[in-house]
């Protein structure tokens, strides 16, 4: 019996040690290696979960490809929210070399001196990023002509409404309004975000309020709108929305455009639009924390992810829009994605355009980092809602 | 006649009740296993119409392409085995020591103190451990959370369960047993290894298995004590929350389940055999 136990333990150990070594891709084999002084070092990357091409679904495993090219060992860990990432970074118990926070969080990290300036000379592919994601971004615009100093955009996106054409009448959708989420006809079949920022956001666009308002009255108005909406809701959800919408248990919901493509893929009755009143636009960008130990390798990694070939692979896997103009200008990428999806991700809806054709950020609004006071108001009202 | 009828109904109720409980316990797992063989990506429909594009076992093949997921699985298994082993050794020694402590009040105090990590909500244990590490690093001047801190944390929350599993068995032991061994010429050390330890073995084993299961399972404490170099499977899976969880994760969880199942079956078989052997004496 002891034999049995020890055999089992040995089997487990062997399994656990070999399992990581099972190699896969045929795709990675033809790769040319490049020598750099960082060969043999280790790079610590901290990213959102499921936010990089990883070899599944016929994609290229980018982490492995990078390791092969540069001989740098990549240790990759993940987080589920900006706040979780912030807790780790600010605790001072860990150091990462590259992190990928969202816009408002980058503003906060810069303010608290937790990220460092990036030397773009070492990232030649930075030129691939479209100008609108290099200049005058509210979270990072201290450089020359309002250029970024601390970040390099990774993915971008907007929130929109996804609905089921089988159950929702064409007439109710015709005006492309947030009011669809308040339509009593679909009572019990409507989904709302399960996080206060996005949920209040939805109510505030509908009521034409500024989502970055510091006036308590605005938040209370949004709160009343959500209360009015609550009896109509199937529930407050995050990733449960996939199953709800794909399985046709719910008919209407709001979610991030890139993720909506996944749902459209799985159920052909679903359709998507951007509401006229306005919406949330967001950017996730790569940053190097202040206490990074391997800045050189971090720059190589950022440069690698901005390289056209790999950025296309990555964008096709993640499904979010890319800020990389060599990606969205690529015919190959457009063809693989399909014109419908391409249009959802990249064509700015007329109602969000300024006269010169660029995005009007007073309508497609960024979420700014909130003051402690407003955060408290939001938390208090959210508790009342739930 | 009536009595037997009532008994029959009672029996039927018992059966239905058992089935319902088993259903509530295992239905989610069974469904997950089914979905790991789904021919579609979506969880809204289950289909077994395999295509050449997605043949049978496709999601299992996908898992083996996802290196990050496999590393997370390996990390979890290594951490569980190691923390399980260390906490079992420490727990056995602690339980043995407590048993032989004759000052009752002291024993009660120590027992309660060791039980504390068990009563504490995970989040409190997690945050306080993170603070402990942060303070230690600040005093030492360097250091990072990672494998070692995770290991320490897992040993900490495993320990009381191991002690709790061994103590009752110790109290069951006939006190004359070690004395007889000493009389027959054993040194105290020999008596411990040859007489007491074999008697305790089933309890030690179940403590070990319990520790492994708890460690594999933990999310909250790991969240606060993990670092940039070591991610466990529960953390990895939970962090997919913003996106939809791909079916390959169901496949991975099914593999995970098989590991746990194998552990449980082995422990039961071993316990059974030990009991039979001891019963025969």
Order of helices and strands of chain B: HHHHHHHHHHH
What oligomeric state best describes the polypeptide chains here? Answer: heterodimer
Which class of the largest domain in chain A in CATH terms? Answer: Alpha Beta
* CATH class value of the largest domain in chain B: Mainly Alpha
| C-alpha end-to-end distance of chain A | 54 Å
Structural class by helix and strand composition of chain B: mainly alpha
Helix content of chain B: over 70%
Shape of chain B: globular
Gyration radius from CA atoms of chain B, angstroms: 24 Å
Mean pLDDT of chain B: 88
Largest sheet of chain A: 6 strands, mixed
Tertiary shape of chain A: globular
Task: Tell me about this structure.
The complex is a heterodimer of chains A (386) and B (281). Chain A has helices spanning 2-19, 62-70, 82-91, 103-111, 170-173, 196-206, 216-229, 240-246, 257-266, 295-306, 308-318, 325-328, 331-337, 339-346, 372-385, and strands at residues 42-48, 73-79, 98-99, 115-116, 151-164, 190-193, 233-237, 252-256, 270-273, 279-289, 364-365. With 386 residues, chain A is an alpha/beta fold. Chain A folds into two domains: 29-155 and 282-344, D-Maltodextrin-Binding Protein, domain 2 (3-Layer(aba) Sandwich); 157-281 and 348-385, Periplasmic binding protein-like II (D-Maltodextrin-Binding Protein, domain 2, 3-Layer(aba) Sandwich). In chain A, the strands form three sheets. In chain A, strands 4, 5, 8, 9, 10 and 11 form a six-stranded mixed sheet that branches. The longest helix of chain A is centred in the first third of the chain and has 18 residues, at 2-19. The model of chain A is unreliable at 20-26 (pLDDT under 50). With 281 residues, chain B is mainly alpha-helical. Chain B has two domains: 1-34; 67-280, MetI-like (MetI-like fold). Chain B has helices at 2-35, 58-63, 67-99, 104-119, 122-140, 147-172, 176-183, 188-217, 220-225, 233-238, 247-280. In chain B, helix 6 (147-172) packs across helix 8 (188-217). The two termini of chain B are 46 Å apart. In chain B, 35% of the residues are buried. The interface between A and B is large, with 54 and 58 residues.
């Amino acid at each position: 019996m002891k034999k049995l136990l020890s055999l089992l333990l040995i089997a487990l150990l062997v399994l656990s040690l070999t399992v990581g070594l099972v190699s896969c891709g045929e795709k990675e084999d033809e790769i040319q290696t490049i020598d750099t002084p960082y060969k043999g070092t280790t790079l610590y990357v901290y990213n959102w979960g499921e936010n990089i091409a990883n070899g599944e679904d016929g994609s290229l495993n980018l982490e492995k490809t990078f390791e092969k090219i540069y001989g740098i060992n990549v240790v990759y860990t993940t987080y589920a929210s900006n706040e979780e990432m912030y807790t780790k970074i600010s605790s001072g118990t860990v150091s990462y070399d590259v992190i990928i926070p969202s816009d408002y969080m980058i503003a906060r990290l810069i303010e608290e001196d937790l990220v460092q300036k990036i030397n773009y000379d070492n990232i030649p592919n930075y030129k691939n990023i479209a100008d609108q994601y290099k200049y005058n971004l509210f979270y990072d615009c201290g450089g020359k002509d309002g250029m970024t100093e601390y970040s390099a955009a990774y993915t971008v996106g907007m929130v929109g409404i996804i609905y089921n054409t089988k159950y929702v009448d064409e007439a109710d959708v015709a005006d492309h309004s947030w009011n669809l989420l308040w339509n009593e006809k679909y009572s019990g079949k409507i989904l709302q975000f399960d996080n206060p920022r996005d949920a209040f956001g939805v109510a505030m666009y509908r009521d034409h309020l500024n989502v970055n308002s510091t006036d308590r009255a605005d938040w209370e108005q949004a709160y009343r709108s959500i209360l009015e909406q609550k009896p109509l809701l199937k529930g407050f959800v995050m990733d449960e929305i996939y199953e709800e919408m794909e399985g046709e248990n719910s008919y209407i919901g709001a979610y991030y455009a890139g993720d909506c493509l996944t749902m459209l893929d799985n159920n052909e009755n679903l359709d998507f639009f951007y509401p006229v009143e306005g919406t949330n636009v967001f950017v996730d960008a790569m940053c190097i924390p202040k206490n990074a130990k391997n800045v050189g390798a971090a720059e190589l990694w950022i440069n690698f992810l901005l390289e056209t070939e790999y950025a296309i692979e990555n964008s096709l896997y993640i499904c979010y829009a890319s800020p990389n103009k060599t990606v969205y200008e690529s015919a190959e990428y457009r063809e693989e994605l399909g014109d419908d999806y391409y249009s959802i991700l990249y064509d700015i809806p007329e109602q969000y355009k300024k006269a010169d054709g660029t995005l009007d950020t007073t309508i497609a609004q960024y979420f700014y980092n909130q003051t402690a006071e407003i955060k408290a108001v939001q938390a208090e009202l959210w508790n009342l809602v739930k | 006649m009536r009595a037997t009828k009532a008994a029959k109904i009672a029996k039927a109720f018992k059966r239905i009740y058992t089935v319902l409980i088993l259903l509530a316990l295992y239905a989610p797992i069974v469904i997950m296993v089914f979905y790991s063989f789904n021919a579609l990506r979506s969880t809204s429909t289950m289909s077994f119409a395999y295509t050449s594009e997605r043949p049978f076992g496709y999601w299992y093949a996908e898992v083996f392409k996802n290196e990050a997921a496999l590393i997370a699985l390996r990390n979890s298994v290594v951490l569980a085995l190691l923390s399980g082993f260390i906490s079992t050794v420490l727990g056995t020694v602690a339980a043995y020591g407590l048993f032989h402590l004759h000052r009752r009040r002291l024993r009660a105090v120590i027992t309660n103190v060791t039980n504390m990590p068990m009563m504490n909500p995970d989040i409190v244990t997690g945050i306080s451990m993170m603070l402990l590490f942060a303070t230690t690093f600040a005093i030492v001047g360097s250091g990072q959370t990672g494998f070692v801190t995770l290991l320490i944390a897992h040993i900490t929350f495993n320990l009381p369960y191991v002690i709790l599993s061994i103590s009752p068995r110790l109290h069951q032991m006939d006190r004359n047993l070690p004395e007889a061994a000493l009389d027959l010429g054993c040194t105290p050390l020999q008596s411990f290894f040859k007489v007491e330890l074999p008697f305790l073995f089933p309890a030690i084993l179940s403590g070990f298995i319990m520790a492994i299961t708890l460690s594999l399972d933990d999310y909250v404490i790991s969240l606060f004590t993990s670092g940039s170099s070591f991610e466990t499977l529960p953390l990895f899976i939970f962090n997919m929350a913003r996106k939809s969880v791909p079916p390959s994760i169901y496949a991975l969880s099914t593999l995970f389940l098989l590991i746990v199942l194998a552990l449980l079956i082995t422990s039961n078989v071993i316990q059974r055999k030990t009991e039979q052997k001891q019963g025969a004496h």
